[in-house]
Design a protein that fits this description.
The structure holds two protein chains of two kinds. Chain A is α+β, with helices and mostly antiparallel strands. Chain A has three helices and eight strands. In chain A, the strands form two sheets. Chain A has a six-stranded antiparallel β-sheet. A two-stranded antiparallel sheet of chain A has the order 2-3. Chain A is globular, with a radius of gyration of 14 Å. Chain A starts with 14 loop residues before the first strand and ends in a 5-residue tail after the last strand. By secondary structure, chain B is an alpha+beta fold. In chain B, a hairpin with a 5-residue loop joins strand 8 and strand 9. Chain B starts with a helix and ends with a helix. Classes of the chains: A alpha+beta, B alpha+beta. At the A-B interface, helix 3 of A face strand 5, strand 6, strand 7 and strand 8 of B.
Chain lengths: 133, 180
């Protein structure tokens, strides 16, 4: 089955924000600090918040963590995602019978290989980082 | 004794023996309380307790005692068990014990007594993966609910990257682990 078409209105330069759980923890020790496990980026419909939507809504990236206390936040770049041939789409329209999504919600689609997930680990940046060890 | 073919399919070794209290995301400290003697030829039973969480495992007994890596793996497993739906803050499924059994069953023939213990991570589809990270080398073995078990290897110094079916590269994975 083919995937939906990538939404070109999302700039290549956009940061895509992904929450990192800490209960159970998805963190790996890394030189006195932490990095996310590749498991954070392996979901087939990978939920993110889209930077350009958040800017249009006058929201700071950290607001992605509203109602998710105890979690952390990383960003990846849309261009890097597209290099692995994964479409990025907006998914912020409420659907009948389902909780309303975040107004900046988007999805990175397609089964995720470990090569993609680990590339995202290597390129991601902490927006809200866990305390160092 | 050859482990690869037997162990890959024989997840019932752990399914029959593994008993686990429901994990409720409490902080766990690793205190191995006891180890019982073999219940049948070639196997040993270990009981673990972490706070109020208990886990009983049977495993192949090679005559050198409990593998040094096993307590760390059990601690990692119990500390990262996704018990509730949505444990990742998105739509993750609870960790499925069948995939835990499969991973543990295959770890024993992969690892040597003093091998570096992996970190066990839950996957959003209910599966699990084991990860090793040392000196710029990353190794993963993944037992996902969505696809055939796979492995991934990356060496930051050389840029060498591999990904493939776990069952097709068992000996290779075992060699990588032996060098970590």
């Amino acid at each position: 089955m083919s995937l939906p078409t990538d939404d070109k209105s999302i700039p290549d330069s956009d940061r895509l924000f992904r929450r990192v759980a800490n209960n159970p923890t998805m963190l790996i020790p890394d030189n006195g600090g932490w990095r996310p496990s590749s498991a954070v980026f392996k979901t087939e419909e990978l939920s993110v918040n889209i930077e350009s939507l958040m800017k249009a809504q006058s929201r700071k990236p950290e607001s992605t963590l509203d109602n998710y206390s105890g979690q952390y936040l990383v960003s990846i770049i849309a261009k890097d995602v597209r290099e692995h041939k994964h479409p990025i789409v907006k998914d912020n329209v409420p659907k009948a019978g389902q909780p309303a999504p975040d107004p900046a919600h988007g999805l990175i689609l397609g089964p995720k290989k470990s090569a993609f997930a680990n590339a995202m680990v290597r390129s991601c940046k902490w927006v809200v980082a866990p305390p160092k060890e | 004794m050859t482990y690869s073919n037997r162990r890959l399919d024989d997840s019932s070794v752990f399914a029959q023996q593994m008993q686990k209290d429901v994990f409720n995301a409490a902080t766990i400290s690793a205190d191995v309380l006891s180890r019982q003697s073999a219940t049948r030829s070639g196997t040993a039973v270990a009981h673990f307790q972490f706070g109020d969480k208990k886990l009983t495992l049977s495993y192949p007994d090679c005559g050198v005692g409990m593998p040094k890596w096993l307590p760390a793996v059990v601690e990692s497993l119990l500390g990262r068990w996704g018990t509730e739906a949505g444990w990742d803050g998105y739509s993750a499924k609870p960790t499925n014990q069948n995939y835990v059994d499969l991973l543990l069953t295959n770890l024993f023939p992969l690892m040597q007594h003093n091998s570096l213990p992996p970190i066990i991570m839950p996957l959003a589809d209910g599966g699990v993966q084991a990860e090793w990270h040392k000196n710029g080398v990353d190794l993963e073995i993944e037992f996902s609910a969505s696809r055939t078990p796979t492995y991934y290897f990356y060496n930051a110094e050389t840029g060498k990257e591999e990904e493939g079916r776990f069952d097709h590269h068992f000996a290779h994975i075992r060699e990588i682990i032996s060098k970590l």
